[in-house]
Each structure stands twice: as C-alpha cells, then as structure tokens.
Amino acid sequence: MYQVFLFFLAQVQCILYQFNATNQYLLVQNEVEQWTQMKIQIYEHNVKQSEAIDNYEKYLQIYQNLTIGQYYELEIVIIPEANFKIQQRNQKDCPKQCSNNGDCINANCMCYESFCGSRCQFEIKSYYNIQQYNIELDQFETQYFKLQYQQSDLINEQGQTKKLIVSTNNTIDIQVYLVLPYQSTLTSIQNEYILYNKSLNEITSIDFSSFYQPFSSSSIIYTFFFIFQNYNTSKQRYLITFELKNQEITFQDFILVTILSVVAFIILLIVIFIVRRRCQYIQISRLKYSDHQQPKIDIVGQLPIISPAKDQECIICLDLLEKYQCRFTSCKHIFHDQCLNEWLQIQQTCPLCRENLFEEEAIKTMKIRNLSSSSLVAGQFSIIQSERQPIQQMILSRSMSNRLAAFQ
C-alpha cells in the first residue's frame, strides 16, 4: 500500500511517501529537459537518510536501503520539480542501463571508449589535427571532444615538445586531459593527467611536456580530451581554434640559462687556471732540478784527476785516497771522485775549507787549470815534495844526533 502526499514550494517538491517494504531498495529517479542543478534527499522522521546532488545534469537517481516487511514514512525532497519516479527494486541497477553504451558494474556505468557521462549518454567526438571547432551549448550544457595528433606533430626538430594554443570567441569553461597512446580516456582522468581546468575567454597556451612520454613510432597517436561547459546565462555559440607552436624561451628561462652559462664558464676558467698552474709548477720544478743538478755534474767532470800520495785520507769518507780515483778542487784539496760527486749533489762548498766551488771565478779557474792539468799536477807534486824534503832532512839529522848521543 502506497500513500503519496505532495508539497510544492517554488521548484521544490517535498513528497511524503508511506509504504510497506516488499523489496530491498527504494529507487527515486528524477529527469528534466534542461541542464540544471539537481538534488534528491530522503528523510525519515526528520532525519536525513541519503542524498544525491549533481550540479548540472538532466537525470538523477538514488537508492535507499529497506527492511522487507517494515512500514516506512519517508519525506522525499526533489529539486527541481520535474518528472520523477519512486519504486521498490530487488537490486541496484545502473541509471538508464548505461544508455546501451557501456557495461554496468556494481551499479556504476563503465562506458565504452567513445562514450562518457554518468549513464554513458554522451558520445565523444574525435577529430585529427583540426585548426578550429564550432559548438553550440545551452546554459550549463556539457560537451566532450577529442583532438588527436601524431607524435611527429607534437615535437620539433630538436625533439622538444610544442605548446597547444587554444583560443575562443566567448568565455567557456574547459578541462583538458592528455591521453597517452595505449591508454584509455578514463585512465587518463583517474591518473589526473589534467593540463587545464578553468575558464577560457581569449587565448591560452597549454604546456603538456610534464605528462608527455615519447614512443619509438613517430606516427603513434596522442589525444587531448576536452570537456566544454557553458556557465553563461544563455545559449552560446563558440568558435574554438587550435594551433601547435614551438615553445618560446621566457625571460625567466633566459635568465636561468644565462646564469648557468656564466657559472659553467667560471668553473671552466678555474679548471684551466689550476691545470695551467700545475703544469707550470711541474715545469719549474724540472728546470730547478736541472739547474741544480747539471752544474754540479759539470763541475765534478771539470775537476782534474790526480794520483794522491800514500797515507792520505779523504775528508768525506775518511778512507785512504789511494784506493779510488780522486779529484783535485780549485781550493787545492783532494777527495775521492765518488765522494765529491755525492757531496756536491747536496752542498756547493768544499767539504774542507767551505769555498764555493760553483762561483764564476772558481769555474773559470778550473777551466784554466784544465788546459794545463798535467803541468798543474806536476807543479803541485813538486811543491809537495819540496815541502817534504826539509822535514825529512830534519828528521834524519835528529835521528843521527840521537844515535851519536846514545853511542857516546
């Protein structure tokens, strides 16, 4: 038994619906001819049980759970006043059987690829690489549109993505999603690949580079999914144009590129400076080592070789001079050739008298003495022998006097 009482207030219908539950669900449907804001509310004893709201639609439905055999007195608010239906159902069904354009799964419509909407009532129009599109929308009406491009259309010769320029002659609300190849429109919406979502009144530039994914084939298709809505107070005609343009370098991008270039140039200069200083240091070190070593080798090579007297020691190694080859310095001292060579690798002075063996005068003296090394050596030995003869005569005379004294 059903009892229905209607209360009208402006465009609001308040229905007092009394009945015994014979099924599991109560279905309330409302359908209008114009796009409008719709609402259905169900109350029991002034307590809200359920609610369905859609801002701009032509059809709305709601299910209320029931207990079979129980008596109900429900207040049902329907906005706006329109053609409504109230009936009991054993199961939940999709609205309008998805308009035969989709599959009903858990009371929700899964629309086919070319359809969309809560009941798959909208057919999506698809176009390939068009420059303009004309539409006419009633107040609050929604329309869906696909614009397709090949991958080669979306990138320039340098492999950079272009920008999609969209313009319109009247203010219109637009949502734009990027649908990648091998991806459904629903997946793109669920993944929130949204590029634009606001009113458009003149021209806008849509950058899709953040969602763009390249594929190997240049002819593969990318899709821009548009949702147009007219929120004006009356029906409007729209001329919407599309154009792909290369991305322009903005002033901020120019500043960023300039700063990065300057920093890179400074780093390059620092690296070049460090490498150059390192090379100069190595070269100077080699020159210093060469200058430090070569004169010593030349000096030792220019010193005359002599055969020293017996029982004389090398002041450097304290070994007898006669055992090894000896050199005679400009300061008239004799050393082992090897000992002197090793000494001069560290010092520049004579081990005995500390005379600098590398001064120009000493070098000149050695060069002059090298020209007459044989006469020099002979003269030195004669001097040594002449110095030794008086000493020997003195020693002999003393020994003779000592012997005579002992004999007497």
Overview in brief:
The chain is an alpha+beta fold. Helices cover 29% and strands 38% of the residues.
What would the keywords be for this entry?
408 residues; alpha+beta; Jelly Rolls; Herpes Virus-1; 3 domains; six-stranded antiparallel beta sheet; five-stranded mixed beta sheet; 6 helices; 22 strands; rod-shaped; disordered C terminus; transmembrane helix; membrane; RING-H2_zinc_finger
Describe this structure in words.
Helices cover 29% and strands 38% of the residues. The protein contains 6 helices and 22 strands. The termini are far apart.
What's the CATH topology name of the largest domain? Herpes Virus-1
What fraction of the residues are assigned to beta strands by DSSP?
A: 35-45%
> In total, how many domains does the architecture comprise?
3
Radius of gyration: 56 Å
